[in-house]
Specification:
- The longest helix has 35 residues, at 250-284.
- The model is unreliable at 6-22 (pLDDT under 50).
- The protein has helices at 2-22, 39-54, 72-81, 91-95, 113-121, 126-130, 160-163, 174-183, 195-200, 211-216, 242-247, 250-284, 295-300, 302-308, 312-323; strands spanning 26-31, 59-64, 86-90, 137-152, 167-170, 186-189, 206-209, 225-241, 288-291.
- It is α/β, with parallel strands linked by helices.
- The protein contains 15 helices and nine strands.
């Protein structure tokens, strides 16, 4: 009799295990345009692990790096259509749907990295992020893509006088061209892949980007003087499909949104650590980093800020961001 009871208990346990495992986890596909070494990728990995734990394995996050699911524009469309569940996209792509998002990418709107992190984690952007539902996606949170600064050949640019007449590569954006103009230089739109050679051949005097890109692309070889103007702090947005959200229980939705927000603090920490290692690599290869008093730059770019903040909605967000400085 005792043996029989033991066998029944064992059979019951095995049955329960197989029953649990028979329910396959829902795959959450995340499109990402950078490599596995990127801080945002690492933050997404941790987010996926936490989501799986918090939902007893009901969801499994799979990240597709290096544009395996297409570039950011294509990825956002896949999210809208429900073909994939999530993606990380640059703020200007969402700005195409709602101009209010432009405020997140205004020159010198953030005092420093801590201020940007406070803005992204304070909750003041929650209503704005939720407002994109009508487009088929919702913004879960924002990640930093670093502070963009000037790097040049010949000498470091520490003020507007030094930047006068200098041709600096910028993103292909009218706002970026205007930004370089208000700082005293000339913005030249160009694809990233052409920058190294253009500086080497004298077509450009330099470029502007964050320390990680600067080191990864070895641009310190042709532009060894890095001046921390930190004129622009870029936001990347983690978006989720409304089709996918509607398939989740309210409880699981709440968990997903909570963990996504928490991943922002993780991403900032990882980004700051990566900047330190990138700077060390650049210095080992002859780069010089110079601190810059940005007061004059900020004052000269104030008219551009006023030009970019136009609608009542933009003004509200702008004032909330400034209030957190």
């Amino acid at each position: 009799m005792k043996l029989s009871k033991k066998m029944l208990l064992l059979a019951s346990t095995i049955s329960a295990v197989f029953s649990t495992n028979s329910v396959a986890a829902t795959e959450v596909k995340v499109a990402f345009n950078q490599s596995e070494k990127h801080p945002q990728y690492q933050a997404l990995q941790l987010f996926g692990e936490e989501l799986s734990k918090a939902t007893d394995g009901r969801y499994k996050v799979t990240i597709f790096p290096n544009e395996l699911l297409g570039d950011q524009r294509a990825s956002l469309e896949l999210v809208q259509n429900g073909a994939i569940q999530m993606a990380v996209v640059a703020n200007p792509l969402v700005e195409n749907y709602d101009k209010t998002f432009a405020v997140l990418g205004i020159p010198y709107v953030y005092a420093n990295t801590d201020h940007q992190e406070k803005v992204f984690t304070s909750g003041i952007l929650d209503d704005l992020f939720a407002s994109t539902k009508k487009f088929g996606f919702e913004v879960l949170t924002a990640y930093t893509a670093g502070a963009r600064s000037l790097y040049t050949k010949g000498a470091a640019i520490t003020d507007q006088a030094g930047l006068k007449g200098k041709k600096i590569r910028v993103l292909q954006s009218d706002t970026m061209i205007k930004m370089l103009a208000c700082m005293g230089g000339t913005g030249v739109p160009m694809n990233q892949g052409e920058v190294y050679t253009a500086i080497q051949q004298g077509v450009l005097d330099g470029a502007e980007n964050n320390e990680i890109t600067y080191a990864d692309l070895k641009q310190y070889e042709v532009a060894p003087f890095f001046a921390r103007t930190q004129h622009l702090r870029v936001a990347d947005l983690l978006v989720v499909s409304e089709f996918f959200l509607s398939s989740m229980s309210p409880e699981d939705q709440a968990v997903l949104k909570k963990l996504a927000k928490e991943s922002t603090k993780v991403e900032f920490k990882l980004w700051n650590e990566k900047i330190k290692s990138a700077e060390a690599i650049a210095k080992e290869n002859g780069a010089t980093f110079v601190e810059v008093d940005t007061t004059a730059y900020q004052q000269s770019c104030k008219p551009l800020q006023d030009e970019l903040v136009q609608t009542p909605e933009q003004k509200v967000i702008f004032e909330k961001i400034v209030a957190l400085k």
